[in-house]
């Protein structure tokens, strides 16, 4: 039991639709949680478990190794669930490496990626003897080699390539185009591979790519596979056959209709790689998923402070804002919003937070049942890139996290 609320709780009712990988669910707030001070993050660990089961049913028969990208949500109860399934950890900072270790991921299941690793972060990861560094530049390799040498260690390295594949997602979460800061360009790669082989304290074990996030067009992963196939062929010609291939993360979720598709299409995702990616003999293929594993199990619960009427619109002013959930302000992203307290006729509202910024708007023109001060509002699909991005701006206190489900 994670908290005193564990079984009185808000319930997600999950029904498996036979023969389909989608799930339907309904969402209600239990009386016990209606008295919980707002705003708070609500995590349904039962849904997380079902998501992980669906993930493993799709990944294991096809022989993919899955790492969880901690940056999506690094709360310990979430991490423990994921670690207990035997997944690895994909970290992008020293803090995340430390958190992964705290949560019980063993070093041989930890990968450290990131375009700007500091010396202190690299040293921490070297001392822990993590499984692999995903390196992104010649400059980084030089530092990694020197720091590994100073610790008398050999660091395993995968080179992050920038495959120049359009993920067809929001520009701010596109990472695999030539114009993005991430990875090593295809033209530079042969030279970097040769250079790496000359560095005494590094061992090249694989290639890595991660082209973006919230990818809903699965054809993008076919494109990525084809690009990686070409790359592997040219590396083979150079005499390099690498034992590991990491294709990154990025599988998107259904923000518009979280109740219709609570669990992402893992079958479609893995079968796309299975069909298009050519593995070298004995090669292990890794994926790093964040959002797809945790987004739907998190909901931000908030209370309506005021309904303010202006000539142009009605504002529903919540006690949660961009300090709790920044995605709408940062990317203009959509979250499904529900009034849990009212069932009256629907009207249009601009749903906003209390922070002193105009971008502190969850969405304009939201159709909600007639809304009043004190109503509880659920902002759905907030389990990924929600709480981790929260800030103390306006000297706001951090919202609580409540865990439900067995
Ligand atoms: C953010 C990130 C991921 C996870 O992305 P999702 O879209 O959440 O699946 C995977 N790998 C790397 C290197 C990342 O930076």
TrEMBL record:
Q: Which family does it belong to?
A: Belongs to the Orn/Lys/Arg decarboxylase class-II family. LysA subfamily.
Ranges for the Orn/DAP/Arg decarboxylase 2 N-terminal domain?
55-295
Matches recorded under HAMAP family:
LysA
Q: Which UniProt keywords apply?
A: Amino-acid biosynthesis, Decarboxylase, Lyase, Lysine biosynthesis, Pyridoxal phosphate
Per its UniProt record, the required cofactor names are: pyridoxal 5'-phosphate
Residues that hold substrate according to the record: 291, 327, 331, 357, 385
Instruction: Report the InterPro entries cross-referenced here.
Output: Ala_racemase/Decarboxylase_C, DAP_deCOOHase_LysA, De-COase2_N, De-COase2_pyr-phos_BS, Orn/DAP/Arg_de-COase, PLP-binding_barrel
Protein name according to UniProt:
Diaminopimelate decarboxylase
Q: What reaction does this enzyme carry out catalytically?
A: meso-2,6-diaminopimelate + H(+) = L-lysine + CO2
This protein's superkingdom? Bacteria
Q: What does this protein do?
A: Specifically catalyzes the decarboxylation of meso-diaminopimelate (meso-DAP) to L-lysine.
Pathway field: Amino-acid biosynthesis; L-lysine biosynthesis via DAP pathway; L-lysine from DL-2,6-diaminopimelate: step 1/1
Pfam families assigned to the protein according to its UniProt record, in alphabetical order: Orn_Arg_deC_N
Q: How does it assemble?
A: Homodimer.
Q: Which residues carry this modification: N6-(pyridoxal phosphate)lysine?
A: 71
Q: Which residues are involved in binding pyridoxal 5'-phosphate? A: 250, 288-291, 385
Q: What PANTHER family does this protein map onto?
A: DIAMINOPIMELATE DECARBOXYLASE, GROUP IV DECARBOXYLASE
The GO molecular function terms of this record are: diaminopimelate decarboxylase activity
Q: What class of enzyme is it?
A: lyase
């Amino acid at each position: 039991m994670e908290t005193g609320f564990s079984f009185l709780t808000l319930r997600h009712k999950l029904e498996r639709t036979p023969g389909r990988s989608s799930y339907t669910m309904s969402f209600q707030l239990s009386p016990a949680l209606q008295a919980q001070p707002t705003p708070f993050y609500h995590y349904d660990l039962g849904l997380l478990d079902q998501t992980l089961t669906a993930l493993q049913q799709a990944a294991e028969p096809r022989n993919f190794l899955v790492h969880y990208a901690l940056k999506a949500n690094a709360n310990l109860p979430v991490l423990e669930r994921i670690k207990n399934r035997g997944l690895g950890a994909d970290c992008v900072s020293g803090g995340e490496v430390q958190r992964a270790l705290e949560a019980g991921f063993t070093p041989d299941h930890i990968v450290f990626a990131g375009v700007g690793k500091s010396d202190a972060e690299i040293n921490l990861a070297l001392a822990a003897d993590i499984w692999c560094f995903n390196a992104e530049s010649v400059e980084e390799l030089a530092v990694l080699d020197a720091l590994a040498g100073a610790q008398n260690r050999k660091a395993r390295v995968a080179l992050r390539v920038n495959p120049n594949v359009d993920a067809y997602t929001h520009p701010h979460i596109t990472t695999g185009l030539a114009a993005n800061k991430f990875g090593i360009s295809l033209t530079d790669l042969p030279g970097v591979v040769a250079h790496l082989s000359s560095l005494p304290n590094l061992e090249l074990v694989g290639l890595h790519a991660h082209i973006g996030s919230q990818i809903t067009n699965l054809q993008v992963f076919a494109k990525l596979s084809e690009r990686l196939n070409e790359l592997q062929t040219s590396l083979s010609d150079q005499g390099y056959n690498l034992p590991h291939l990491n294709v990154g993360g990025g599988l998107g979720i259904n923000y518009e209709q979280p109740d219709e598709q609570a669990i992402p299409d893992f079958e479609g995702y893995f079968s796309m790689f299975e069909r298009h990616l050519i593995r070298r003999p004995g090669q292990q293929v890794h994926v790093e998923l964040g959002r797809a594993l945790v987004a739907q199990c998190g909901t931000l619960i908030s209370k309506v402070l005021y309904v303010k009427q202006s000539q142009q619109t009605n504002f529903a002013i919540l006690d949660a804002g961009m300090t709790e959930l920044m995605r709408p302000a940062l990317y203009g992203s959509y979250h499904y919003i529900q009034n849990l307290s009212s069932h009256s006729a629907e009207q249009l509202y601009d749903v906003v937070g209390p922070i002193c910024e105009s971008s502190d708007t969850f969405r304009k023109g939201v159709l909600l049942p007639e809304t009043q001060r004190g109503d509880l509002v659920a902002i759905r699909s907030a389990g990924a890139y929600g709480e981790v991005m929260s800030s103390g701006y306006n000297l706001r206190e951090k919202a609580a996290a409540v865990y439900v489900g067995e």
